[in-house]
């Protein structure tokens, strides 16, 4: 049975209130399957960037080894990197780790004692994470995309039920009724700039006029909208 434990981290930035949340998924998966699950339902496998964040995951309800997003699975890359692209500057290795036992340990698991590298094909529970940041600036869709890529990871596309629920919480206090998302009409179809499959919850015109090919979310009606890409709106980064 699948269960989850939600842990809240509240941080604030000048752009707005940034909410980082970790979700413990008590289902055994390989690292790659866990990564796919997190990307489809939240943002990515968990990133841990400080001792404080690491300590917040040490809770009685979570025991044993748990997948996090640290890995070196990209061909030809020997350095450790986070699945969501966050820079790596904090580590919490167990003594004598990482050891790359039998040269097959390219993924990292978390425990209350520290981190350990492990075979990515092992099945473990895992932590997903999300971080939606409401930016209360007025920008065009392209400007919003550039801003999010410069200061965060990208322009958010909250397209699953979980993501939409989390986005509603993050966008409390928006200054525009609609906010830009990472959806764009390209080559005859709507796509997410994060390459996440859109699924059935996204409903937008199948042939929008050229200027109205950028996707927004109305925070009052909770409906998707295609809007003029040059309109200046608040937006959601991740």
Describe, in plain words, how this protein is organized in 3D:
It comes from Tachysurus vachellii (Darkbarbel catfish). This is C-type lectin domain-containing protein. Keywords: Disulfide bond, Signal. There is one protein chain. Strands 1, 2, 3, 8, 9, 10, 11, 12 and 13 form a 9-stranded mixed sheet that branches. A 4-stranded antiparallel sheet has the order 5-4-6-7, covered by helices on one side. The chain has helices at residues 31-41, 51-56, 141-151, 161-170; strands at residues 4-13, 16-29, 44-45, 66-71, 81-82, 105-111, 114-119, 124-139, 178-186, 189-192, 214-218, 223-227, 233-237. Strand 9 and strand 10 form a beta hairpin. Helices cover 16% and strands 38% of the residues. It is α+β, with helices and mostly antiparallel strands. Mean pLDDT is 86; it is low at 7-19. The longest helix has 11 residues, at 31-41. The radius of gyration is 19 Å and the shape is elongated. It has 4 helices and 13 strands.
């Amino acid at each position: 049975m699948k269960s989850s434990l939600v842990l809240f981290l509240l941080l604030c930035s000048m752009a707005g209130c940034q909410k980082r949340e970790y979700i413990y998924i008590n289902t055994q998966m390989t690292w790659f399957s866990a990564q796919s699950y997190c990307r489809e339902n939240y943002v990515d496998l968990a990133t841990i960037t400080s001792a404080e964040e690491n300590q917040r995951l040490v809770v009685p309800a979570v025991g044993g080894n748990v997948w996090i997003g640290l890995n070196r699975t990209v061909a030809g890359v020997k350095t450790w990197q986070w699945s969501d692209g966050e820079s790596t500057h904090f580590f919490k290795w167990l003594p004598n780790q990482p050891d790359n036992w039998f040269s097959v340990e390219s993924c990292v698991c978390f425990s209350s004692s520290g981190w350990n590298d492990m075979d990515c094909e092992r099945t473990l529970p895992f932590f997903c994470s999300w971080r939606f940041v409401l930016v209360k600036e007025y920008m065009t869709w392209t400007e919003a995309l550039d801003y999010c890529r410069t200061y965060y990871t990208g322009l958010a596309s909250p397209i699953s039920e979980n993501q939409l629920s989390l986005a509603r919480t993050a966008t409390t206090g928006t200054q525009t009724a609609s906010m830009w998302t990472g959806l764009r009409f390209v080559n005859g179809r709507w796509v997410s700039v994060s390459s996440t499959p859109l699924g059935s919850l996204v409903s937008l015109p199948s042939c929008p006029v050229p200027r109205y090919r950028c996707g927004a979310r109305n925070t009052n009606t909770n409906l998707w909208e295609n809007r003029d890409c040059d309109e200046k709106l608040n937006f959601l980064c991740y």
